[in-house]
Amino acid sequence: MSKFNVTTLGQFIIERQHEINVAKGEFSRLLRDIGIAAKTISREVNRAGLADIIGEAGSSNIQGEDQKKLDVIANDLVIDCLTRGGEVCAVASEEDDDIIFIDSPVSKNAKYIVCMDPLDGSSNIDVNVSIGTIFSIYQRVTSVGTKANTEDFYQPGNKMLAAGYVIYGTSTMLVYTTGNGVNGFTLDPGIGEFCLSHPDMKIPEMGKIYSYNEGNILSAPKGVQEYITWCQQYDKDTNRPYSARYIGSMVADFHRNLLKGGIFIYPATDKAPNGKLRLLYECNPMSFIMEQAGGVSTTGKERILDIVPNALHQRVPIYMGSKGMVNQLLELLDK
Ligand code: AHG
Ligand code: MN
Ligand code: MN
Question: The whole model's pTM is what?
Fold first, then answer.
């Protein structure tokens, strides 16, 4: 007799909804809708090489970066899913300069806002390397039924209700937290469901991988330069030299480091004096997941999740990963 003994994402969301302090049914529906968007993006990503949808879309976003077609497709897919779901009143996305207001007949009483990077690592699309989607969910602070505004989006990350990412790798995985640990689900293409494959994920306290774009080393803070040199020195007792691994898709670098232990480093550079990565839809969600998995995430001066944002596309330096590794780097930065 065959047995079905997997837990699907949908089942898991319902099983765990008692842990959530907000309207349970609505919040579960919202998570489910993001899961549906993720599956649809995964399908598009998988057939990108076949269909004529890779390459630049011909437009650029607020940061002057070229937008790939898949970025736009992923952006639209998530917004469509959230619009149909009715639980979200506004979205901040890497691909849109301003807040996107969701105004549909079913979203009149929507209580939540979403920040997202619909496709992270888009320079890797054309070369068939892993990319991802990042999302976070907050309760709105303005009154339900009114138009959302920046106040809703300028909440510090420590107010986040949930955050997650989807990685389109050798398999597609969705990893998320609602503040009660981190759980990972692998998409079984045969049944079209995300199935619980990585329950209660924890990052090792120490690792031997550093993920840093060393092309920027000359303009990195002194402490970072010293740390990287230290990582490269031979030492039997501390297992050095460490290994350099840098994909250029934060989601993919993060996911590997989460499983194996490691540190992800993106400091301020000459080219990007505030760092490159965006607080609202890259650093905050990943920091929430990192902390929930037992790791650390900081700008070098403060905890990422405690920053009060002042712009939708604000950038910050970020150091995150295994506790022991980040703390070692912090000692050098403090010197
Ligand atoms: P996005 O594709 O969403 O713009 O993000 C790219 C980000 C991030 O995924 C990655 O870690 C970083 O840019 C890589 O930047 P460098 O090429 O400067 O190292
Ligand atoms: Mn990104
Ligand atoms: Mn992106």
Answer: 0.96
The finding on whether 213 has its CB within 6 A of some atom of ligand 1 is: yes
Respond yes or no on whether the N-terminal peptide bond of residue 241 is cis (omega within 30° of 0).
yes
SS3 176: strand
Proximal ligand: closest to the CA of 71: 3
Residue 319's nearest CA partner among 297, 335, 303 is 297
With vertex at residue 291, the alpha carbon angle to CA 174 and CA 198, rounded to the nearest 5 degrees, is 35
Query: If the chain, 335 residues long, is cut into consecutive pieces of 10 residues, what is the mean pLDDT of each piece?
Result: 84 94 90 97 88 67 72 96 97 98 94 98 92 98 97 98 97 98 97 97 98 97 98 96 98 98 96 96 99 98 98 98 98 94
Taking every pair of C-alpha atoms in the chain, what is the biggest distance, in angstroms?
64
Q: Which domain holds residue 25?
A: 9-198
Q: How many angstroms is it from 239 CA to the middle of ligand 2?
A: 31
**Cα-to-centroid distance, 277 and ligand 2 (Å):** 7
> Among 198, 226, 244, where does a domain finish?
198
Q: Which ligand is nearest to the CA of 125?
A: 1
Question: Of 198, 229, 262, at which residue does a domain stop?
Answer: 198
**98 Cβ contact partners less than 8 Å away, ≥ 6 residues apart:** 312
| Residue 230 DSSP SS3 | helix
145 and 62 within one domain = yes
Q: Residue 130 corresponds to which amino acid?
A: S
Quick check: CB of 95 below 6 Å from ligand 1? no
